[in-house]
Amino acid sequence: MAAEGASANLKALGHQLVENKVSVHLVYDNLNQYHRLWRPSLDSCTSLESGTAATLIIQHDVAEGAFDGIEYERRRASVRREQITYEKIWGDIQFDHLAAIGATNILQILLEYLPGLERHRGAVQHLYSHRFAKHPVKIQKTEYYPMETSSYDEVQNIGNREVLKDLLVRQLGVKPEELDGQMISISGDCSMAAKLRSLKRHTSCGLSWFTSQRFALVLTELWHMRWAFIKGIFRLHWAPSTMKGDSGLHIAAEKLRCKLNSSDPEFYPAERLVETVLATMTLHYARAVLRQKESSLFISNLNRPPHLIEELNLHLSPGRFLWTCTFDELHDELNAVVSLSPDDSDDSSDADHNGEDGVSSLPAGQSQHRSKDHENLDCFDDSAPLDSPNTNTGGDVLLFNNILLYWDMLLYWEFRSSIKDSDIGRTFEVIKWLCVWFFGAGATNYGQELLHQALDLWFHFTEKMKDAVFNNYVISPSGRGEGYERDLLQEHNNFWLKWVFNGRLAKFDSSFLREAVALNIVPLKELGQTILQKFGLSNIYSGRSKANIQTDINYLGHSYLTQQHHIYQPGRVQLFLAMDGIEQGTAKLEEGALQKFLDKHFYQK
After folding, report:
1. How does pLDDT run across 125-154, given as a tens digit for each residue?
2. What total of structural domains would you count in the chain?
3. What is the DSSP code string of 472-517?
4. pTM of the model
5. For residue 393, is it within any domain?
């Protein structure tokens, strides 16, 4: 598509937007690039240029009047401060649903590695699509249009104002007064959302709907939230140092030779480590339960000890439990092991156990462990210190740490799976839990942003607006397969923008980059991939390949069995004590973080 044609197409979409013939969503992100000089000097040196790239997404299944800004403002103005309490936040979390869907995700993991259970796949999928479905969205091909880049930096409030003006007025050709009374959903990462909310707060007395930014319906995107979730897991469960007999993410990374920056891990390597540890712990617990349920003498008669996955498949032999059990029996067995009640105690001094040879249950409620410092309630440094355990405890610190780690990872996996299943309702059930957990994990900025979203869902959204937002929270660029995060699409566009324009000295607002490159980044990407493929420099796949981690699982599984991770052993200690994000978040919210949030964000009534 020529630059003129792409620009005219955006203008046509803006005209349809004004006439309410189309509903659009804008997602944008910062774009950074170094301009390197071969011979730098005092007046000419290497510099970092910051700009913004954006994508327009056509929304579907939007009822007429769904984005009524007048009604949104009326509802927002009617909210009273006393309506926003910690009890309301806590009561919004559906622990029973999270426990039940957690058990179903465990079944899904078993199905992935035990082919003999394939007969139960239909029943598992039925649970996802019927019993636990919250707001499933039908997969359909998403219509989207990359927009021109700009040199405005969305890290600043004024930069966000100029970005919105550039996108709406200059590129879409919308006159400011034509947006009166209407709202447009706009999203990005947490930082962008916070800056845009700050801009709205500081311009709330503007003379018009446009200058007061009341047209902007701010949403936080999911891929960056997933990344923050992973970082939070690392902060709560990554031991600063390890010793023989330790468990957790750090020791697993060492055994698997994964080199990660624990304070700021890269997304995909960190997610793979979480996936490997979660799958290994799940399969190891399944092995422990099966060994307790039926005789394992047949294993001792083998020529060599079987690996973890190999042993589980042996339990699928005719006549054994996994072979004879019905789906209901298997599901009930998991529900008996899994518990996610806020009333359960996880304290390392009296962890529940079923005797010396019993397999512990897996609760994930509030531990009795308290942080030593609750004073710094406005913690934006994303840090969560790990405590040293009491070496004189009569409990099992290793098992305590494993239980907290397992549940945090299992809920992360539900967050990830619900997005891929395009059930945004399930995703938001985890987000309700994250609203408290992020405060405990040190990601206070994300915790505050999720409080904003909670207020929207409780008070500000009409049912039509909520449905419109949920129906378009995940996308499908291909129209087939899994759900896809909107900000991940933008990240891919950013990658290709840098790839096509890497090393050029032009600015992000240069006409060449804006019109020739940014507007046509999709065909340029396809052209680049085709050239690489034709010359044999790269293989292009239509889908995403999945790494085979069975060897890693078997290796970790042997370590877990040797160290008896599943058995309660009084007095067993580790060098660190994992932090319970929910318990820590509860403490912060109750001791002042919620009130400071309310003091800052309008709710002075």
Report:
1. 999 999 999 999 988 999 999 999 998 988
2. 1
3. TSEE-SSSSSS-EEHHHHHHHHHHHHHHHHTT--S-TTSHIIIIII
4. 0.89
5. no
